[in-house]
Amino acid sequence: MRIVRYRPVGQPSAAPQHGVLHADGRVTRAEGDPLGGAVADTGEAADVGELLAPVEPAAILCIGLNYAEHAAEGGRPAPDRPVVFMKTPAAVQRPGGPIVLPRRLRSDSVDYEGELAVVIGRECLNAPREAALDYVAGYACGNDVSARDWQRGGGGGQWCRGKTFATFAPLGPCLVTPDELGDPGDLRIRTTVSGDVLQDSTTADMIFDVPTLIEFLSASTRLAPGTVILTGTPPGVGFARTPPRWLAPGDLVTVEIDRIGALTNPVVEERLPEGLGELDRWAL
To answer: Cα–Cα distance between 155 and 130 in angstroms, integer?
Structure first.
C-alpha cells in the first residue's frame, strides 16, 4: 500500500488525513494509522488539498558516509560503524514545498542529498538484525539538505547546525508499506537538479544495510513510532563536484527511488521581515 497524508481542499487548518495512492494517481480516503496499526482503504475519493510529509516524525536519525563512494568523494575512509547525527522534526518539508536557502544565518553552500527514508512503526528497542524489518511501517524518499559551510567550520564540526535549517528535510511523496516495497537493499536512487541527473546509484551499495542500521540504532536505545531514519546518500553530491554545484533559487530538486516514487521540491531564497537582516555577528 502507498499511503499519503494530506489536508482537504479549502481546509488549511484541518487535522491531517490519510489516503491511499493508486497506480493511476487516484487517492482514496483511508482509515487507521500507519504507525503501529492497520490502514484500511475506504474506496471513497479523497479531497486532497495540500499534500503533507507522509508522517510527522518523532525524531530524525541520519546516517553519514553510508555509501563507500560518497565517503571517498569526501576524502573519508569507509567507517567501521554507522556515523549518526540528527535533524530536528521541525526541519521537515512536504512534497512540493520549497527548500528555503537561509539568509538570517546566511549560507551560500547548500547541497542536496537524496536518501532512502525508513519509518519505524512501533516501539523498537534492541531489535536483532534478523527481525529488524518487522519494526518498519514503511519507506519514503528523503532529502538531507545540507548547508556545508555551517555543517563544517560554521557549526564547529557538528553536523546538526548545517542540516537542520527550516525546510531542510523534505520527505515523501508517500509511505510505501514493506509488503509492497519488498527488499530495501536493492533500490535504484537518483537525484536530479533542474534536469541534471547528479546522483544515480543503488541501495545495494550501502555499507550498512537497513536491518543493520535498525539493530545499531535501537541497541540500548528506544526508537519511538514515527522515528525516521535517513540511511545515507550515494555519491554525486554538490560539494564534491568541480566546480561545486550548490542549490540556487529557481532550482528544482527531485529524489526518485524505485518502487516508491519521486519527491520534488523547488528552491527559493528566504525572505526576511522588513528591518530584519542577516545576523552579522555570526557571519562566516
So the answer is: 37
